[in-house]
Write a structure and sequence with these properties.
Layout lengths: L11 E5 L32 H13 L4 E5 L9 H6 L6 E6 L8 H7 L3 E5 L5 H8 L4 H14 L4 E7 L7 H10 L3 E7 L14 H11 L2 E4 L6 E5 L2 E6 L5 H5 L3 E4 L4 E3 L9 E2 L5 H13 L9 E3 L5 E3 L7
Parallel strand pairs: 1-2, 1-10, 2-3, 3-4, 4-5, 5-6, 6-9
Antiparallel strand pairs: 7-8, 8-9, 10-11, 11-12, 13-14
The protein binds guanosine-5'-triphosphate (GTP), S-adenosylmethionine and iron/sulfur cluster (SF4) (2 copies).
């Protein structure tokens, strides 16, 4: 496994398969690429099936153990099951989706080798859901979650971004997973730096404190040192990257954009390496360079000045 200059092994890759989406969530960071999504129109800049598979075969040589498929909405790719089927057997594959296309397709994905799925569901209330996603697909998403459970995808994680529009629904969502075996919940800290709406922010520490009092047991996950709270039959994990040096110090994934650009960090677009029509040997080299240039975003790329403000480390200005 390759290790970067900060001692972080790269054990996983996170691949955005498309920037297209059938939703228009008010907070969407689109995996760091800004709002370039068009609803359903076909796109000619996406990696082909073969490009994705070739990349996975190369990183398998470096001992990468896990791949996460995301987007945009990755299930808009009709070749998703084929990609999963052709993913090297040694790698665990998981998917992050808005869930709308899971009914009727979850079983195929499971059969193709998908291990588990994360479904974005920000509330148990259709009106709040519609306001956030700009879609009327609430029932469809619930059906998608059930289809994933029925297909035996395990676990099925619900992703909920904690921000102004959803804060009032956190308790209900925690109770929901506590009562439903097979479901887990990820409470994701809202990232304002990629959306430009700081006023929607909620202090995630308040949620940690509340869960600490409610949980039967608390664990720390190796990746990102995320805290996991066990409540009833469910597990609630907090994903809190913002201004969190410990989170970045334990970041073990390289990312790939839908056009096939390697990228060392979600929050940075100044280290992109296009794989384009590269040969396997060239991809190998580009991957090595990406890992070699990885830096923890908070704590190294951004550092705190004397007023505790996060500013770009001088080393990286103009680099
Ligand atoms: N800044 C930052 N945010 C991340 C990172 N990983 C996940 N997130 C945030 O968490 C969201 C949900 O991630 P998911 O795609 O569900 O996957 P995950 O939670 O990272 O992975 P698993 O728990 O292993 O399924 C992402 O879209 C980001 O908003 C990371 O490395 N850095
Ligand atoms: C970009 S989406 C891509 C996959 C799929 N379309 C979905 O919604 O699950 C991946 C995850 O990013 C989260 N996300 C998007 N914008 C965010 C933001 N500004 N802050 C925190 N999480 C965000 C979403 O809630 C979703 O769980
Ligand atoms: S469903 Fe996912 S990709 Fe689509 S707008 Fe919402 S968060 Fe973004
Ligand atoms: S370095 Fe930090 S911000 Fe960048 S991807 Fe890793 S955890 Fe996220």
């Amino acid at each position: 496994m390759l290790v970067d200059d900060f001692g972080r092994e790269v054990s996983g890759v996170r691949i955005s398969l498309t920037d297209r989406c059938n939703f228009d969530c008010v907070y969407c960071h689109n995996e760091g690429l800004g709002d370039t999504r068009g609803p359903m129109e076909p796109s000619d800049d996406e990696m082909s099936t073969d490009d994705v598979v070739r990349f996975l075969e190369v990183v398998e040589e470096f001992g990468v153990e896990k791949v996460k498929f995301t987007g945009g909405e990755p299930m808009l790719r009709q070749d998703l099951a084929e990609i999963i089927r052709r993913t090297p057997e040694s790698m665990e594959s998981s998917l992050t989706t808005n869930g709308t296309f899971l009914p009727g397709r979850a079983e195929d994905l499971k059969e193709a080798g998908l291990s588990r799925v994360n479904v974005s569901q920000d509330a148990l209330d259709p009106e709040a859901f519609a306001e956030i996603t700009k879609s009327g697909a609430y029932d469809n998403v619930l059906e998608g979650v059930q289809a994933a459970l029925d297909a035996g995808l395990d676990p099925v994680k619900l992703n909920m971004v904690v921000f102004e529009h959803t804060a009032g629904y956190v308790e209900e969502m925690v109770d929901h997973v506590a009562e439903n075996p097979g479901l887990q919940l990820q409470l994701i800290e809202y990232m304002p730096e990629l959306t430009g709406r700081p006023e929607w922010n909620i202090d995630i520490q308040r949620v940690h404190d509340w869960l600490e009092g409610k949980a039967d047991r608390v664990e720390m996950r190796e990746m990102h040192h995320r805290r996991r709270y066990y409540v009833g039959q469910g597990m609630v994990e907090i994903v809190d990257p913002v201004e969190n040096e410990d989170f970045c110090a334990n970041c073990h994934r390289v990312r790939v954009t839908h056009e096939g650009y390697l990228k060392g960090c979600l929050n940075r677009n100044d280290d992109l390496r296009p794989m384009g029509q590269m040969t396997r040997g060239e991809i190998r080299e580009a991957y090595r360079e990406t890992v070699a240039n990885r830096v923890p975003y908070y704590g190294e790329y951004l550092v705190q000045d004397e007023d505790d403000e996060w500013v770009i480390n001088e080393k990286y200005i103009g680099a």
